Amino acid sequence: MKYHIIVFGCQMNIADAERVSAVLESMKYTQTANINEADLVAVVMCSVRKSAVDRVFGIVEKFKEIKKKNHGLKTILTGCVIKKDKKIFLNLFDYVIDIKDIKNISKLLGNCGSSRKSGPQTDNYLDITPKHSSKFSATVPIMTGCNNFCSYCVVPYAREREISRSSSKIISEIKNLVKNNYREIWLLGQNVNSYKDGKTSFPALLKIINNIPGNFWIRFTSSHPKDFNSDVIEAMAKCEKITPYLNLPIQSGDNKILELMNRHYTVQEYKNKIKELRKKIPDICLSTDIIVGFPGETKKQFNNTVQLFKDTKYDMAYINKYSPRFGTAAAKLKDDVTWDEKKRREKVLNETLKQTALENNKKYIGKIVEVLIDSKKDGRLFGKTKEYKTIEINNDKYQIGEIIKAKITEALAWSLRGKIIK
Ligand code: SAH
Ligand code: SF4
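A: This is the predicted complex of the input protein with iron/sulfur cluster.
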């Protein structure tokens, strides 16, 4: 029996998919990259933007075609699904399973029952040993769910309240990965800063992981600025395995919009945190998430975000056009910024970012950086620096998954070029 898996969305969804794969393989399914030869297709969906949900409807159309030839094909939907959509998808998929209940897949497939029959799992699904999709970079979810209810966001509805995993399970999972030569460990959570297991806080967890012997890098995402405090900065500065890279999503550079977004910080408070971070870790690279065209966002308010970009000099940004999500507080507000205007604002921010990113990258010329190689093509190596910058190297003597040293020879806005240091 063969399964095919389709994943949309963030790293958390990829981590979920690795657990879905593990459960299916424990049932003796083998993975196929060819959907046409699959007996089972699992879709791990994302609900954060409407466009992501629309892509699932697109796939459902494809299923109809495949089922004409392959009558026995079974389809499963899981991941971030909101209640309203679940009702619709129950008619379009054979099974819609809450990600927390994925251990029940075997029962469901055996019984051919519907997801309504599946009982909840008492243990945390994140403790399922995943089938890692990479041999050198692993994601380790440390928590799931979210308590923040940012007014635009569907995640607290799709993933429910925050639950932290046990620190001992996280640590033994990481020890095992390090033993198996994993070089990059991504700690994941909707807001890793609010991780708590008994007395173990997020900074404490970072310190314990940093003490695991081995040559590996620690990265983490996401951080909510309201909870990103001096204790995390101190841990980042002290722990040599934590990479000098941080994604700190601000969402908007305007205080009124931040208030409407229910984010609980001001632009100044955010900037103060960045200032402290740069003081303690001068070579830190920064990225952020932005939503353009939030309901009521005026051109002047948007320009405050442009100004923030100029001041903060980000290395990277994930710029999203606002999309109203059913059930969220912001969905009750009028989505009054046109799609064309949202696109324009996205473009303006991208242009601003391109300039700061290029300026930042130029500072690397002549410097030596560490690189984790993630692919090879046409005699060249590609990878990410410790600062999470994409790099291309004219050499292919090294293996994917190796950490090497390179000297930067050229800087572009979105990547660096370099040569191997012997
Ligand atoms: N927990 C993470 C983000 C999860 S969603 C955090 O707090 O940063 C990932 C990104 O999607 C968000 O940072 C936001 O920029 C974007 N996003 C969320 N809801 C959105 C919406 N309704 N419209 C457009 N972008 C959205
Ligand atoms: Fe969504 Fe806000 Fe929670 Fe992030 S912190 S998942 S943006 S509600």
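Residues 146, 148-150, 153, 155-156, 190-191, 224 surround iron/sulfur cluster (ligand 2) (CB under 6 Å). The mean pLDDT is 95.
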